[in-house]
C-alpha cells in the first residue's frame, strides 16, 4: 500500500474542500473499481490494527452505517473523510490507553479507559467485555477494531438509557419492545 499511496500522492488531482488530504489519498487507493464509492470489502483493506491484521467485518459494517449518508451500503469521499478523522481520534485514544504498547487493550486498561471516558463500570464488567471481544484462540485483549466497536456501542446504549433515566437514578423501567428498539438502534444505527 505504501508505494501505491506514493503514486497516488504524485498524481493527486484537486482535493475537494473539507476533505482530509490523507483520506483523499487512501480513498483513491482503496476505491479500486473507481466507482467513487467504497464498500465494506474495500473499506476492510483501508483499516488495520496495530499488528496489520485487517479490521473485523462487524466494525467495518458499523462504520459504513455510521458514515453512509446515502443509505446505500457504501461511502463516498466525504463520508470516508469524516470516518478518517473519527478513526484518528479513536486510534490516539487506543494508543494512549494501551500502556504496555502490546497492540491490545487488557481488562485493566479497558476499565481505566472507560472510567476516564466517564463510564462507571466494574472491573468484572470490563473483563467480560474483553472476553467477549477478544479474537478466539489468541490471548485475551481488545484490538483497535473491537475497541472502536465496544466504545461506540456503549456510547449508543448509554444514550438510550440516559434518555429514559430522566430522574438520573441509575435505574430505568423499560418494556419489552422499548428494550428491543434500544438494542436494534444501538446495533444498526450507531452514532459517532
Ligand atoms: C494480530 O493479533 C490477533 C490478536 O492477538 C491475532 O489473532 C492475529 O493472528 C494477529 N495477526 C497478525 C497478522 O499478526
TrEMBL record:
Query: What SUPFAM superfamilies does this protein map onto?
Result: EF-hand
Q: Does the keyword Repeat apply?
A: yes
The way this protein sits in the membrane is described as: Peripheral membrane protein
- EF-hand domain span: 18-53, 85-120
Q: Which Pfam families match?
A: EF-hand_6, EF-hand_7
Q: Any idea where this protein resides?
A: Cytoplasmic vesicle, COPII-coated vesicle membrane; Endoplasmic reticulum
**GO cellular component terms?**
endoplasmic reticulum; ER to Golgi transport vesicle membrane
Instruction: Extract the CDD domains matched here.
Output: EFh_PEF_peflin
Molecular function GO terms recorded: calcium ion binding; calcium-dependent protein binding
Q: Which PROSITE patterns match?
A: EF_HAND_1, EF_HAND_2
One GO BP annotation here?
COPII vesicle coating
Keyword entries, A-Z: Calcium, Cytoplasm, Cytoplasmic vesicle, Endoplasmic reticulum, Membrane, Metal-binding, Repeat
Q: Name where it mostly resides.
A: membrane
Q: What is this protein called?
A: Peflin
Organism of derivation:
Dicentrarchus labrax (European seabass)
Amino acid at each position: 500500500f505504501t508505494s501505491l499511496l506514493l503514486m497516488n500522492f504524485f498524481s493527486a488531482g484537486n482535493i475537494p474542500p473539507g476533505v482530509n488530504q490523507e483520506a483523499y489519498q487512501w480513498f483513491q487507493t482503496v476505491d479500486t473499481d473507481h466507482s467513487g464509492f467504497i464498500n465494506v470489502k474495500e473499506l476492510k483493506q483501508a483499516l488495520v490494527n496495530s499488528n496489520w491484521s485487517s479490521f473485523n467485518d462487524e466494525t467495518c459494517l458499523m462504520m459504513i452505517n455510521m458514515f453512509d449518508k446515502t443509505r446505500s451500503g457504501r461511502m463516498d469521499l466525504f463520508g470516508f473523510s469524516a470516518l478518517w478523522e473519527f478513526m484518528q481520534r479513536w486510534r490516539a485514544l487506543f494508543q494512549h490507553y494501551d500502556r504496555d504498547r502490546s497492540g491490545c487493550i487488557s481488562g485493566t486498561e479497558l476499565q481505566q479507559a472507560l472510567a476516564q471516558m466517564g463510564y462507571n463500570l466494574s472491573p468484572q464488567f470490563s473483563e467480560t467485555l474483553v472476553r467477549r471481544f477478544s479474537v478466539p484462540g489468541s490471548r485475551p485483549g481488545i484490538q483497535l477494531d473491537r475497541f472502536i466497536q465496544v466504545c461506540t456501542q456503549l456510547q449508543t446504549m448509554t444514550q438510550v438509557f440516559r434518555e429514559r433515566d430522566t430522574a438520573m437514578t441509575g435505574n430505568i423501567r423499560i418494556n419489552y419492545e422499548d428494550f428491543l428498539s434500544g438494542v436494534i438502534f444501538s446495533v444498526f444505527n450507531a452514532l459517532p
